Automatic annotation (TrEMBL):
One of its GO terms (molecular function) is ligase activity. Residues 84-293 form the ATP-grasp domain. Keywords: ATP-binding, Ligase, Nucleotide-binding. The keyword ATP-binding applies. It holds the Pfam family ATP-grasp_4. Gene3D superfamilies: ATP-grasp fold, B domain. The keyword Oxidoreductase does not apply. SUPFAM superfamilies: Glutathione synthetase ATP-binding domain-like. This is ATP-grasp domain-containing protein. InterPro entries: ATP-dep_AA_Ligase, ATP-grasp. It comes from the Bacteria.
Length: 388
């Protein structure tokens, strides 16, 4: 069963759900859209009968808490969503990793000068990169606290408290190394089945955006084995049988892996999990519903040497989604050498207005995209005029 946010459903996901005849629970209507029967009006029974559960939006967490609260899958999902609880559970494995939780009211009482910089400061409950900051020193921290309180107040107008908690924050060590995002599920034996492995690129050390992720033959050859081995240990700690996950972690030059966060019961958002279908032919939803394992040696051997990437074009600043906007998609498309697919995203439901999948011969194209100001392709209608 999929807990579906119908605000945006990618074409590939829609096709897969139809082909596989997957039971669909519309999270807005709290209603089964297919496989209808009298029993399925009782969502408590529906959840109890389902063996595989996935969602395409973290808004669905509140549905789990309402109808399936005492299940292992819901309790595990809530633990992962609470970044402080997640860190506490892993504290024994990372004894030198600094972290603490604080509330909005306690922020002003912290001795900022005593903290071990650099640090990451973010909401205890959150998603994507909303409200995430890298902090270098006490003076910068004070400035960021002021700005973050304003930003969280704005974001909370659109996101439920189950998705984005603005009352508590976590302060933790900055994790060095290359960052990766992994889509996977754990099988019946609690073994990890990796479906996607993406490396993340940043414009600079302060960049916390989700601007660029990419994969390639070299990325998979170099990192798939050690990351899979690490994920095996994660499964042993949490018992993750048949759970789909989107895991973010970093690996340093010595091969030490530290998790950033685990996003439960979903893959990379806004359809970006589908980068794998372009790069190596893996439809992550198909593999999950069928509980199939990719033949990675064969897939990697068949890959070309191109870089496969996606970027999320997002609004920035004080722009509001109810403003009359014109997006110059055709001009933005001209910044890419080889677009695999350009998707218009209904921006009324969030900050992303386009997801672009593209390939390139090197990372130079990605560096160029990182340098772009996407707001140059956005105009408010009141500023447009026509010369007669």
């Amino acid at each position: 069963m999929i807990l579906l946010d119908t605000a945006y459903v990618s074409p590939l996901l829609a096709e897969t759900l139809i082909e596989k005849k997957v039971k669909i629970l519309d999270i807005q209507q709290q209603l089964i859209l297919n496989h209808k029967s009298e029993d399925e009006k009782n969502l408590v029974k529906v959840f109890q009968q389902e063996d595989l559960i996935i969602m395409n939006s973290e808004e669905a967490v509140q549905i789990l808490n309402e109808y399936y609260a005492e299940s292992h899958v819901t309790k595990t999902a809530n633990l992962f969503k609470n970044k402080f609880a997640f860190r506490k559970r892993l504290a024994e494995s990372y004894p030198n990793f600094f972290f603490l939780e604080t509330t909005s009211g306690e922020l002003g009482q912290l001795d900022l000068s005593s903290l071990p910089y650099p640090l990451i400061f973010k909401p205890t409950v959150g998603y994507s990169s909303v409200g995430v900051y890298r902090v270098e020193n006490a003076q910068e921290f004070q400035s960021i606290i002021d700005k973050m309180e304003e930003k969280m107040e704005q974001s909370s107008e659109d996101d439920s408290k189950d998705v984005l908690g603005s009352e508590t924050f976590i302060i933790e060590s900055y994790i060095e190394g290359q960052e990766f995002a992994i889509d996977l599920f754990f099988d019946e034996k609690n073994d990890p089945v990796v479906l996607n492995l993406f490396a993340r690129m940043f414009k600079d050390e302060k960049d916390m955006s989700d601007r660029i992720y990419y994969t390639s033959k070299q990325v998979l050859q170099n990192y798939l084995a050690p990351i899979t081995e690490y994920l095996q240990g994660l499964g042993e700690i949490f018992n993750l049988r048949k759970m789909p996950l989107h895991v973010e972690l970093r690996m340093d030059d010595e091969g030490t892996i530290v998790p950033i966060e685990v996003n439960p019961l979903r893959f990379a958002g806004a359809g970006t999990t589908e980068l794998g279908s372009f790069a190596y032919g893996v439809n992550s939803y198909d593999y999950f519903f069928e509980q199939k394992k990719p033949d990675w040696p064969a897939l990697i051997n068949a890959m070309d040497k191109k870089i496969y990437s996606f970027t999320c074009a997002e609004f920035e600043g004080e722009i509001k989604i109810d403003d009359g906007l014109v997006i110059h998609h055709e001009l933005l498309q001209q910044q890419f050498h080889h677009i695999l697919e350009y998707r218009h995203i209904p921006y009324e439901h969030g900050t992303t207005f386009a997801v672009i999948f593209f390939s390139s011969e090197s990372l130079a194209q990605n560096d160029h995209i990182l340098s772009l100001d996407f707001m140059e392709y956005v105009e408010k209608k009141e500023y447009l005029y026509v010369n007669n």
